[in-house]
Amino acid sequence: MCGIVGYVGPKETLDVLLGGLKRLEYRGYDSAGVSVISELGLETRKKAGKLTNLVNEIAEHPMRPSHIGIGHTRWATHGAPTDGNAHPHLGGPTQKLSLIHNGIIENFAELKAELLAEGTKFASETDSEVAAHLIAREYASVGDLPTAFANVVNRLHGAFTLLVVHVDQPDVVMAARRNAPLVIGLGDGENFLGSDVAAFVEHTKRAISVGQDQIVILRANSVEVRGFDGTPATPEEFTVDWDASAASKGGWPSFMDKEIHDQPQAVGDTLMGRIDADGVVQLSEVESLGVDWVNNIDRLVFVACGTASYAGDVAKYAVEKWSRIPTSVELSHEFRYRDPIITDRTLVVAISQSGETMDTLMATRYAKEAGAKVLAICNTQGATLARESDAVIYTHAGPEVAVASTKALTAQITAGYLLGLLLAQLRNSMPATARQALGQELLKMPARVQQVIDGLAQPRQLGKDFADAKSVLFLGRNVGFPIAMEGALKLKELAYIHAEGFAAGELKHGPIALIDEGQPVIVIVPSPREADTLHPKVISNIQEIRARGAKVIAVAEEGDAIVGDYAEHVIFTPQCQSIFSPILSVIPLQAFAMELATAKGLDVDQPRNLAKSVTVE
Ligand code: F6R
């Protein structure tokens, strides 16, 4: 959702702003704009559509050199994605103030009524413009920008990151943050603001995450952070471990393609330094919760949305099996509205790539208020979720730019395995030899992920072959079930076709009625090697649907000599312990969906209607 960049310093501001907005494109947006203060005063350009429209607009109406400015990509909430509703918005009758906003100002209607009653003219339908006029009016009355800004943000309800520049104070960018992301980039004689570190990582790796209800006064040589009540804050600096080049396509046709291929490294980096050669897990991040406390956990709840929730679904199998802690998975947006039983012995594990998903943030705040401890599994340093949690396991997948999640998922599942093994270790819930053998197995997974990547030509070709499919069904069992759900989600969001994932055992209870002549069905087939194998049951399911006309693509383990007799196509993945198979079997599904969507001429990096980081509830 909305991307925000601010800059003050010696560089040409427009370059910094447009470069930052380009790097934030992945968040999803439908219009873009910039304001700079130049020798002409405030100059603003904004345009509906992609960033190239804004760049063309600036080429037609060039802007003067500048050393301070703000830039925005908007994901429409209040008001259609038009030029007029695009940000920045100008405030006051003299239009000397420019503002950008991410979030929703919930009390905008009453504030707008107040301004309308005074005769204020509005140029847009947005809630954001209200804040621009209020700050301009307040500045006219108090004569000091930080004071005027603070007075107004204290009147706003809802979620907002606001950035403001004013012609009368051309050396300062003001910013405020409540329930929406904001990070500061610290440079040498220059400073930056961004929705996330991607906005400025090509210029600096030194960053500060702005806290809830805090205001930033950003100048080229100073950064001041205060609470909304004026109390000085001393935020902690961190070093960004993402390389700027990691957030570029590096020769791949799409970010999604690149990120699918990043997975051996994403899984490997997430494991790195966290399991030793004996299979013993060393996750000091979680141990900070306290060994005594960990022993007292009586329930573990994963909260997450979308793909991240499927990582939770997989992790649940591992955590519960190994640690014997009763474990459930809840969609964040459902969780707090059903009065769940949460106590001071509950561990809530919030999984989020961005760490800014509002539904997940609200779920964790609710859990904390109810006395639970919150552990985050998060991919983004400095994210709100990481800051608000009691402990964080970072997934080291690197920046994920394509809207549809790929490498973040396999890294999240990997972090879930690490957590499960750690809990088993701390609670002594399984024999050490068996546990350590699992740890050693887990260390072998990056190489197996690489083998799957090396064999992607087949699922890619199948994606092309099925480009005309109107609907695709996915079946899985046990840890294959969440992967079936994920396969369906990838196809829906990328190729805009109907897709559903089912538990294979559920088929006979209803979904089998969907099977008709020619219906493509992708089946995640469990390993035939393990004692409590579900393999024959899933083979029976395949027979049932084939008998009704389904065309079956199976994802099965190498050495499965049976499945080939029952499926039209078999995609083989390397042998491994069944519990670890999801990080292999999901990858052909990602490639299948990407290729099918590409064959339909669709943009796989930025599917319609979607935002990368969903910062509203
Ligand atoms: C789907 C996808 C989404 C996200 C979900 C949670 O491909 O990417 O379903 O997984 O919006 O996002 P995070 O992990 O940032 O909380």
Would you kindly provide a brief summary of this structure?
With 617 residues, the protein is of the alpha/beta class.
| CATH architecture descriptor name of the largest domain | 4-Layer Sandwich
Quote the CATH topology of the largest domain.
Glutamine Phosphoribosylpyrophosphate, subunit 1, domain 1
- Residue stretches low in confidence (pLDDT < 50, at least 5 long) are none
End-to-end separation: 12 Å
Q: What is the number of E strands?
A: 24
State the strand order across the main sheet: 3-2-4-1-10-9-11-14
Mean of residue pLDDT?
Answer: 94
Number of domain units: 3
CATH class of the largest domain: Alpha Beta
Please work out how many helical segments DSSP would assign.
20
Largest sheet: 8 strands, antiparallel
| Helix content percent band | 25-40%
Bound molecules: fructose -6-phosphate
What class would the helix/strand composition place it in?
alpha/beta
CATH superfamily descriptor of the largest domain: Aminohydrolase, N-terminal nucleophile (Ntn) domain
Q: Rg, please?
A: 25 Å
Beta-strand residue fraction: 15-25%
Outline type: globular
What is the secondary structure topology, with strand pairs?
Blueprint: E1 3-8, H1 13-24, E2 31-38, E3 41-48, H2 51-60, E4 68-74, E5 89-91, E6 97-105, H3 108-117, H4 128-142, H5 145-153, E7 158-166, E8 173-178, E9 183-186, E10 191-194, E11 206-209, E12 214-218, E13 223-227, E14 237-239, H6 255-261, H7 263-271, H8 284-287, H9 291-296, E15 299-304, H10 306-323, E16 327-331, H11 332-335, E17 346-352, H12 358-369, E18 373-378, H13 384-388, E19 391-394, H14 407-427, H15 432-443, H16 445-454, H17 457-465, E20 471-476, H18 480-495, E21 498-503, E22 520-524, H19 535-547, E23 551-557, E24 569-573, H20 582-599
Parallel strand pairs: 15-16, 15-17, 17-18, 18-19, 20-21, 20-22, 22-23, 23-24
Antiparallel strand pairs: 1-4, 1-10, 2-3, 2-4, 5-6, 6-7, 7-8, 8-12, 9-10, 9-11, 11-14, 12-13
